[in-house]
Amino acid sequence: MLGSWLILRWALNQMDPNKNAKAMAKLRKKELAKRLGRPVNLDGQYEDVVAQAVINPAAIDVTLEDVGGLDHIIEDVTRNVITPMRHPEHFRSNLLRQKRGVLLYGPPGTGKTMLAKALARECNACFILLKSSTILSKWYGDSNKLVAAVWSLASKLQPCILFIDEVDSLLGQRSHQEHEATTAIKTEFMQARALGGLHPAGLGRAGRALSLPLWEGFETTGRSNILVLGATNKKDRLDDAVLRRFSLQYEVKLPNVTQREAILRLTLQRHAREIGPENIEPQLLPLGAADGGSGLAWLAERTDGFSGSDLVQLCSQAAAVPIQEHIE
Length: 328
What we know:
One of its GO terms (molecular function) is ATP binding. By secondary structure, the chain is α/β, with parallel strands linked by helices.
C-alpha cells in the first residue's frame, strides 16, 4: 500500500503543470534570502519576478564619498532623505514627514544613477532597480499585478528605495493615442495599494492585513519607510501628475571646472588605492583635496562640456596607455 501511494504521488507530481514554476519560486526565495541576509516571504509569481531586481545595500560598492561634484545636492539629500529614512521615529508630524518622491534630472552621465545607489547604501535600504522590462508584460492584466507586487514586496523589505531609471519611459505623459493598458499601468502605479502596517510583513497588532495607500498622492502612511527615486534625462516628458508628486527635484547639471577637478581627483584617488600611487603621473599628484595638483586643474579647464562619465572614461583610456606600452 505504501509503495503504491508513493508511486501515485510521484506520478501526480510529474504531471503537475506548475512543477517547474514552483521549483523556480522556491529557488528564488532561497537566493533572495541569501542576498539580503534574512528570509523574505514571497507571495506568488509576481513578487518572484520583482524580487530579481532587489539589491542588498551592503552589496553596493558606491558611497557618497565616491560621488564627486555634487556636494550641494548631497548636503540637501542628507537632511531631507537620509536622516528621515535612518531615523523615521522623528518624522511623524504634519510638518516633519519623510519625503516619498525624489527626482534626479539632467544630461546623461552626470551621476544620477551613482547618487541613487550611494543613497541606498547610506540609508541601509533595500534597493529595487525598477525598469520598464520588469513590469511590462505582453499578457493583459499582468503588468497591473506586477505593479502591485512591486509595492507589496517593498512593504516587506522596508526601509526600501524604489529606483526608476529613465522614469520618463515608464511614467511619461498620458495621451489619447496611447494604449489603454499603458494608461492603466501608470494609474495603477500612482494609486497602488499594498499590505502595510506596524509589522514588517504588513500585519497589524491584531494580525490582520491592513490595506494602505502607498503611492497615492505620494502620501504614504507614517509607519512606512519607502522612497520612490526617479532619474531622467527628459523631465519635460514626465506626466504632470507624476511630476507634481515628486516633492524633491534636483537638477544634476554638467560639472563646472571646480566640480570636474573634484571628479578627476576622486577617480584618480580610487585608482591609486587599487594599484598604488606610484602608477599615477607625478604631475597629477598630490591628490589631496586641499592642495590638489596643477595637472588636475589643467585638465579640468580643458574638459569643458564633459560629464562625470566622460571624465571617468578619459581617465580609463589614459590608464590603459602605459599598460599597452608595457605589454609591447
